[in-house]
Amino acid sequence: MQKRVLIIQNVKANHHHVSYLDGLARALDRAKFEPIVVLQAGVDITEGYPPPNYELHLLPGATYSVPGQAQFMAAAMNLLDGMEGVDIIHCSNPFSSVLPALLHKKLRGASCKVIYDMRGLWVEFAVHSGSFPPAFAKVIDAIDVAALHASDGVIAISPKLKEVLITKKGV
Length: 171
What we know:
The protein is of the alpha/beta class and 171 residues long. The protein has helices at residues 17-30, 66-81, 94-108, 122-128, 137-150, 159-167, and strands at residues 4-12, 34-40, 55-59, 88-91, 113-118, 153-156.
């Protein structure tokens, strides 16, 4: 039986991260895994690209807003509640994809592994860009650190990020 790997990220199909996610899903398919990709709705993913050879789900949400993150998170929770047999959940966004995966595992007793693919210091970026008020930084960072520790594995995009996660976040 093939292992089912769900890849979830709250970005639209035309976001630059999707090239990486699409390549990952296609590589998993070639390696005889069953990839499932979950992205944000709103863009035709097939325009100009070969059709995906994996199960694709498009959920409502927005990447850079609190309401959009909450909307995607709720939709992801509903999707996960209806899925069975997922072995690994590969997530990137701390709130809209990692938290639903961790809650699914904890509240539903799912036996899947949750992998947090950390592409950068998301909380710091969100505060510095003005997406989240600085007053929330400590709370948001604490949630992010808890998600890092609760995940079964963490991928750091660079050696420097790995160093920061170990020295400042205790991962």
